[in-house]
Amino acid sequence: MGLALASLVLGGVSTAVSAYGQWKAGSAEAKAGEAAQNAAKKQADLTDYNAAVMRLQASDALERGELEANRYRQQIRQVVGETRVNFAAAGVDVGYGSAVDVQADAAYLGELDALTVKTNAAREAWGFEIQAEDLTREAQITREEGANMAEAGRQRRTASRYGAIGTVASGTTSLLATRYGFNRRGRD
Predict the structure, then answer these.
(1) Helix (H, G, I), strand (E, B) or coil at 182
(2) What is the pLDDT averaged over residues 24-44?
(3) Contact 51/128 with Cβ under 8 angstroms?
(4) What are the phi and psi torsion angles at 96 (to 5°)?
(5) What single-letter DSSP state applies at residue 184?
(6) Which of 77, 123, 129, 143 could be bridged to 44 by S-S, CB 3.0 to 4.6 A?
């Protein structure tokens, strides 16, 4: 009887240890999922920050383009003014004929160049905006992946807990069968 009791006790301990291991493994899975979610959130926050930087760069590009265009326009006004002075010094009527055409052409071409500067700045800004949008979407996807990892960890924890309960039930059934002789064939 002592050997049978020792066998029952060892069987019970083995069942309990196995069930406890399954329970703890499930808890570890849930913690790992939460840690992955936290890491994904931090990565997404960094990606959002980078998107904000891109938006600032876009705004800066537009401002720089506007300033450069205005600076260029000022230079053209100076060139037109110098042209007028040179014409006047040569005795040419600056308000009539070819002198007016030369001034108008210089102003027109200067304005085209200023608009080109602004257009190039707008293109640069657009590129930054596209990068910012891509980063914003990347951050959103990263957060969703983190949430999915946390949920998967919780599901693995639940499955492990069901497994632990099944191990206890199976072990208990086995111990009862051993102790009380269930499933013995050939009983008289």
Answers:
(1) coil
(2) 91
(3) no
(4) -145, 145
(5) -
(6) 143
Share of the chain above pLDDT 70, in %: 95
SS3 content of the chain, % helix, strand, coil (to 5): 90, 0, 10
Q: State both tokens at 164.
A: 């632990």
Helix, strand or coil for residue 94?
A: coil
* Closest alpha carbon to 26 in 170, 167, 182, 162: 162
CA distances to 48, 69, 100, 153 from 64, rounded to whole Å, are: 24, 8, 32, 50
Angstrom CA distances, 146 to 45, 69, 138, 159, 180, stand at 12, 46, 12, 20, 51
Interior angle at CA 78, CA 74 and CA 82, nearest 5: 170
Query: Hey, where are the domains in the chain?
Result: 12-177
The stretch 54-70 carries a mean pLDDT of 97
Question: What are 103-112's pLDDT values in tens digits?
Answer: 999 999 999 9
Type of residue numbered 13: V
User: For residues 92 and 41, what is the distance between their CA atoms, to the nearest angstrom?
Assistant: 73
Instruction: Tell me the DSSP string of 100-143.
Output: HHHHHHHHHHHHHHHHHHHHHHHHHHHHHHHHHHHHHHHHHHHH
Closest of 147, 167, 143, 142 to residue 25, by C-alpha: 167
pLDDT of amino acid 185? 57
The answer on pLDDT for 90 being more than 80 is yes
Token digits for 135?
Answer: 């980063």
